[in-house]
């Protein structure tokens, strides 16, 4: 077993053959941990010296990275690539989404990689390195999942099935090396590519197209759900009905378990199919805008704030929606226009993007859905903006939050308090006819399952004839 560390470790263990018991094909970290233990003195040094795949100044967007002189307060996490995936164009950056980072799928970026050569070429050859603040691991520790930048690439087990959130604590740290070692068995998209992933759960007609934004300078997947009977009409004929439109963020999570975060979707297609059939809401078009992975936080959050040391660019994303995407949707589909026929919705940072759009583009969106907003960002910047907002508010605003968003009593209570402040700020600034609703759901967490569970009531409130019912 040889490491690309300048020869230090290979001099010690290069001539030892690693014996692995059992029949497991990819033993990963546990297979070579015994060898690492023999050379713990070598691995007490910062891992930034081990064949780092990226430098600190070139680290991608995410939590602020750590310089070598700060590693005394950090714990190293080695994530062994046991996925068997062939990485095109070199070993990719890995990301660690955490409860402390608002579950940003491009949160904490790996700071380097460790390459090693096993005697058996079928065994894992490389591992990602993370530096995590030691304080994160105190008490109940930190919950996490690994991705390659967005939830479509979230880690799964070796069969492509979802796994529970990881939890890292100080008790897991190897004392002589200051390392926690784990195996990464696969990625969700890796299994979908070979046909072994989750089956599609789309109900009705879902059209998908790629759209390049000149404003953002990058492309985006757009998913458009059409109500039953839409296909019977003609795009330009005045004889056929036109439909209101609901624009929603994190489009990959809205309609299909095969593309959504850990296989749980909002169920927008199922919920609207039932509500429309029952006559509780009008037939409508829903436009799901996929998030941009590593750029998600910066696109969804307000100008003048930052996340992970990166300045947010919410105005650019809003320009993309208003100036490029909405005209394209109007061109392609039979839409109704005007605020009474136009809505927007999202969750977490997507909830932030929705609130921000309502204030920055008053009179465009008449109905907004704000689920579990991360309105703490920028020292409660969105609450302050709402209090100062003098423009028109949407006619109906639905704000919701669980009281168990992250499973941490103090943090969850603070989130609920901020949601109440936001609600009061919107109510205070509303027009006389406007309606605002706040839902605090006992026991609900920060996930697609919770948002799906509230979606029916939210859509009835936003789009039904009697919003105050």
What does it look like?
The chain has two domains: 2-193, no CATH class; 205-463, Alpha/Beta hydrolase fold, catalytic domain (Rossmann fold, 3-Layer(aba) Sandwich), CATH 3.40.50. The protein is built from eleven helices and 21 strands. The chain has helices at residues 8-13, 28-38, 40-43, 188-193, 268-277, 296-300, 314-332, 349-360, 377-388, 409-428, 448-463, and strands at 2-3, 74-81, 95-98, 108-109, 112-117, 126-133, 142-147, 155-156, 166-168, 179-184, 186-187, 205-213, 218-226, 245-249, 285-289, 306-307, 310-311, 342-347, 367-371, 396-402, 435-441. It has an eight-stranded mixed β-sheet, with helices on both faces. Helix 9 (377-388) packs parallel to helix 10 (409-428). The longest helix has 20 residues, at 409-428. The chain starts with a strand and ends in a 6-residue tail after the last helix. Residues 1-69 have low confidence and may be disordered.
